Amino acid sequence: MKGSASVRAANVPETSWSVGDSDLTIAQLRQILASDRSIRLSSAAHDRIVDSRKIVEQLAEGAGALYGINTGFGVLAHQRIPRSDLEQLQENLILSHAVGVGDEVPSEIVRLMLLLKAQGLALGYSGTRVELVEYLIRFFNEEFIPIIFTKGSLGASGDLAPLAHLTLPALGFGDVDL
Fold it and tell me: pLDDT digit string (tens) for 88-145?
C-alpha cells in the first residue's frame, strides 16, 4: 500500500484517546471518563513537549535568571540556584506546596484533573519533561488516584496545593487510592 494514510477496519473501536492533538470538548471529556478506553500521548504532542523542554534547558544554561527555573521563589526570585541544585529546587517546591487538608477530593474529580493536566501539558507550552506527562497518563489509565484534599489551596488561582498533591506520587511521595 502506497502513502502514509492509516487504515482501520470498519466498526473497530479505537482502543485509546489521544491527548495533545486538539482541544477536548466537555462531551469528549465525559465520554473519556465514562469509557474503559485508555488515553495516550500523541507522537506530535510528545515531540512538542520534547522541543519545549529543550528550549527551557538551553535558557537555563545561559546567564539569564529564569524565575522558578534557575532562581528561587518569592523574595528569593533574584537568587540564582546552581545547576546542580535545580532538580532539588523543583522537588522542594512540590513538597512545600502539598499542604492540603480536609476531605478527600472524589476520585472521579481527580481522574478528571489527571486528564486535564495531561492534556494541558501535552500542548507543549510548559517546558516540562515528557516523563511527567507519561506518569499522569499512566496514573489515569491504571486508576492510580493521588489523594488530593479539598482545603489548603495556594496561589492566585488556588491550584498549587491540589496540583502538588496530584504530582506527589510521580516523585514517590503522597498517598494514592488504588
Answer: 998 998 999 999 999 999 999 999 999 999 999 999 999 999 999 999 999 999 999 9
Q: What does residue 122 show for φ and ψ, rounded to 5 degrees?
A: -70, -15
Between CA 3 and CA 25 the distance in angstroms is 31
State the Cα–Cα distance between residues 2 and 126, nearest whole angstrom: 37
| Residues annotated as catalytic (active site), given as ranges | 67
Could you give the CA distance from residue 93 to residue 90 in angstroms, rounded to a whole number?
5
CB distance 54 to 129 below 8 Å: no
pTM score, two decimals? 0.85
User: Rounded to the nearest 5°, which phi and psi values hold at 132?
Assistant: -65, -45
CA dist 14 and 25 (Å) reads 18
Say how far apart CA 170 and CA 155 lie, in whole Å.
22
